[in-house]
């Protein structure tokens, strides 16, 4: 066992590279599995601790359900890192052959007199990036077969063999939008049983302010008989990665860390300094816990504003993306892209803050309203479909609708809180014949929940004979669907409802094919 508490950053990094550090990562989900894989690639001996035996079995077989994009090739190919960050998501941009590329949101930009301007269209570079998405699988296989990463359901034994323990269990919303701490409590109890002197525990999960010191610390102390701060270190370092780009973002996105004391914070920083991303130490775990909630609340509120602006634009006949791009040339304006908001974090993290504020007697109405706007977007998408059918003079009932993209965002298979699912349900409720296509999401559970939906991996079949195409997730393969390609497959006159800003509306010039995008007037 090596000591990390009290080491210099260089010393800890050297120990990791020399294979002398053992790390237990508790929770092998979208955060924990890439984290475990990356530490193993750096040389650590990693134990992945998981309550789900199926996940343990899969990981030990070197298999992952998670889709990750590898962008290292872009850097290898001579791409230059720019000082600018993406106005969409704040991630650092690359320049490659005069094009500016955002590895996180996948959109490209050009450099001009105003700085970075995002372009809505994809290009070859984007397509080739997305074709690299299976690389995570090979990295996982590599560390598992080298014996560097082993998954287990026995957290306590893994902790007993580890120098550092990272907690990355889920923190879902429970009843009435109150955060559910049960996985954090269960994980802390199992860790406490295996804890030894000089261990370092880093909580990575997104939690309510006060959780590290008020929930995790007492459980660890009680279960181990050790004293936090003296015998073991404890810190909170929230995860900021965007699903699908963890491999890149673990290495590049600045981290924040708050320790129960300076030694704990510095030890957590030293562990993560094996990755090049800068580390910002804050005064306490409750600061980092709160800051993480600020980040997602900011993003959710910003998208809600963009969504409201989009709805206004539909009424005043202005293209919302044209207006947003123009507004974002002002360095003080950072409007995000309107659309369906889903996934694990954005729909829940603002409620963490809301529940805490309400508990303290304050009603945070702006944050609540933003959630209401975003939660209303599936209904709005269905209204757009109804409008399109109204214009076409065709009945929705009995018409074939091709719903493209079931996952919560493009190039991800994650269905958690996906806005596409309520859209699909409502369209089925209107008696449309709905065909749902997704290249990555697993259909297994949804097939049981939505027996009237036709699920398909075949894009051509899904489009064939459809009266309306609804884009609900921006998977990269949909970006090659130019209007003439759609018109060849669909029943005309037909319509396209784009909830993801993947088309340039001005390309819709055929009067037989209507375009109605979120935040856009009708085209042609
Ligand atoms: N998904 C993201 O992109 C993302 C980004 C930033 C932060 N986060 C935060 O990170 C945390 C993890 O998110 P995630 O998306 O990886 O969740 P996830 O649901 O994909 O993974 C959590 C894993 O923990 C396992 N687990 C639950 N209880 C356990 C226990 N007691 N012991 C061991 N394993 C246990 C679950 O079976 C699951 O596999 C959450 O707090 C989330 O808010 C997630």
Question: Brief description of this entry?
Answer:
With 524 residues, the chain is α/β, with parallel strands linked by helices.
Q: Would you write up a description of this structure?
A:
- This protein is of the alpha/beta class and 524 residues long.
- It folds into four domains: 208 residues, Rossmann fold, CATH 3.40.50.720; 59 residues, no CATH class; 84 residues, N-(1-d-carboxylethyl)-l-norvaline Dehydrogenase, domain 2, CATH 1.10.1040; 142 residues, NAD(P)-binding Rossmann-like Domain (Rossmann fold, 3-Layer(aba) Sandwich), CATH 3.40.50.
- It has 20 helices and 19 strands.
- The strands form three sheets. It has an eight-stranded mixed beta sheet, with helices on both faces.
- Helix 1 crosses helix 11, helix 8 packs parallel to helix 9 and helix 16 packs across helix 17.
- The radius of gyration is 24 Å and the shape is elongated.
- Nicotinamide-adenine-dinucleotide (NAD) binds next to helix 8.
- Nicotinamide-adenine-dinucleotide binds next to helix 8.
CATH topology tier name of the largest domain: Rossmann fold
Using only C-alpha atoms, the radius of gyration works out to 24 Å
Write down the CATH class of the largest domain. Answer: Alpha Beta
- What is the overall silhouette? elongated
State the CATH architecture of the largest domain: 3-Layer(aba) Sandwich
What's the multimeric state? Answer: single chain
Rounded to the nearest angstrom, the distance between the terminal CA atoms is 68 Å
For the record, the count of structural domains works out to 4
Kindly estimate the percentage of residues that lie in beta strands according to DSSP: 15-25%
Question: What is the helical fraction, as a range of percent?
Answer: 25-40%
Strand order of the largest sheet: 8-2-1-9-10-11-12-13
Beta strand count: 19
Helix segment tally: 20
